[in-house]
Amino acid sequence: MLVRLKNSNGRQLVKEEILNMASDLEVQEISQNNSIELGVTGDLRLVDVDRLRRNKSVHEVIEIEDAFKRSNRIYKNADTIVKIGNKEIGGDKLGIISGPCAVESREQLLKIAKNVSKSGSNFLRGGAFKPRTSPYSFQGLGEEGLKLLKEAKELTGMPIVTELMSPDLLDLFLEHDVDVLQIGARNMQNFDLLKAVGRTNKPILLKRGMSSTIKEFLMASEYIMSQGNENVILCERGIRTFEDFTRNTLDLASILAIKKLSHLPIIVDPSHATGKWWMVKEMAKAAVLVGADGVMVEVHNEPEQALSDGPQSLLPNKFEELMKELEQVAAISGKRMQG
Predict the structure, then answer these.
(1) Of the candidates 100, 115, 123, the residue with the CA atom closest to the CA atom of residue 305
(2) Residue 28: enclosing H or E segment and its boundaries?
(3) Single pTM value for the model
(4) Spatial distance between the Cα atoms of 120 and 306, rounded to a whole number of angstroms
(5) Do strands 180-183 and 204-207 pair parallel, antiparallel, or not at all (unpaired)?
(6) For residue 59, what is the DSSP state?
């Protein structure tokens, strides 16, 4: 529910009036569109809407019918910009996240980190803990991988993005200064995990589940935001359809849909969406052209030797080509690359 005020004078009294209606209601102050607004969440059945509308300080009360509230564009019309260090995702700046699917060794990670940093990547990705379909596949280096990511961050200055699979590991990730906590597609509806990261102030990169609808995706973001963390970045990574030529089916229309429904930034992962390195560049450009706030691309210096997802990884020189072409596409889309 959105309560739009006539001016700021009666803000505190209106806020207190709402909170007195029920103990589980929450009120968030929102300043946008040159107006003062109060976002109300909780059991909205307990809100006396007619009473609020009679309040002389209230201009109007807007009831949000969708189940997702805080992530709704009605709740907040201005686009959210998530700040990570001196970089941003959202607004007019394009965010580029790149690196290997998995951290395999110090030599591998530092070499790739130097390469993508030189090409202009803003963030370094790399899996320290890897969810794999087979229990016999490489599961990552664990805490040693986090240490190597931190070393790569100190070397290049790039904030790091890595996947968190369990609330039990959250303190470890915070201890090693992970900048962006990634919630993978398999965990999009792991509600205990979503609530746990929602209680931090860390930026959260939330990937769409492989069989999830757009509204289910937004409801997952709502779990994070309901705990107080508004720093949510959505990631479209393809959905499972009957098509098996590509790894998944990249839903570019979801970018447009989410931009209409929500204020949250959305990036695209063309590597997981296609599963084929030779498709990544064109799909990345297409995503930016329709309004994506960034792309997440897997890069490996020896894809044929990669312990995870080699066939979808770009060589460093191919990533450099992509960066040059993305700069041109970004300009068409009203965005600009970050230095």
Answers:
(1) 100
(2) strand 26-32
(3) 0.90
(4) 23
(5) parallel
(6) E
- Give every CB contact of residue 115 below 8 A, 6+ residues apart in sequence: 299, 301, 316, 319
The rounded distance, in Å, linking the Cα atoms of 239 and 237 is: 7
8 Å CB contact between 1 and 63: yes
β-strand partners of 93: 90, 336
Res. 33 pLDDT band, cuts 50 70 90: low
Question: How far from the centroid of its chain's Cα atoms is residue 18's Cα?
Answer: 31
How many angstroms separate the CA atoms of 158 and 91, rounded? 20
> Averaged over 35-43, what is the pLDDT?
86
Nearest Cα neighbor of 234 from 217, 251, 257, 249 is 217
Q: Exposed, middle or buried: residue 195 (CB in 10 Å: 0-12, 13-18, 19+)?
A: middle
Classify residue 268 as left (phi > 0), alpha (psi -120 to 50) or beta: beta
Percentage of the chain surpassing pLDDT 70?
99
Fold that domain 82-337 belongs to in CATH: TIM Barrel (3.20.20)
What does each C-alpha distance from 32 to 37, 76, 176, 177 come to in angstroms?
8, 8, 36, 32
